[in-house]
């Protein structure tokens, strides 16, 4: 077949978001788009539990979270497990650039989120991006 969809490398996603409407929208959108949202949590401690018990392909995390800690703590734990992180935040601090594959600027649209995940999937498959989606900043992965 000439126009087949390629297999995704990103299938199982953990959403770490403390804004309930954003969390719900992301969970619904990603589920409808064929991703398996393993869990949606709003606290670092809950994210660490999911990281310990689940196989994940990506963590989608805000920087500012409920309770103690923040998204950089989630990213450090994910890195220890070899799981890439995409921050979704209105402001990604400079130190976050060493912890994640990139940052998607808030506010973002459903279309922008899908485009960002497609771009990451392309990179994870070792291919070059033709264009970085609007609102997505990619970080060096050295």
UniProtKB/TrEMBL annotation:
Residue list for modification 4-aspartylphosphate: 62
Domain of life: Bacteria
PROSITE patterns referenced in this protein's UniProt entry, alphabetically: RESPONSE_REGULATORY
Keyword Phosphoprotein: yes
Domain Response regulatory: from-to ranges: 12-121
GO BP annotations, alphabetical order: phosphorelay signal transduction system
Record's keyword annotation contains Aminoacyl-tRNA synthetase: no
Chain segments annotated as transmembrane: none
Keywords carried by this UniProt record: Phosphoprotein
PANTHER family: RESPONSE REGULATORY DOMAIN-CONTAINING PROTEIN, STRESS RESPONSE REGULATOR PROTEIN 1
UniProt name for this protein: Response regulator
Native source organism of the sequence: Allosphingosinicella humi
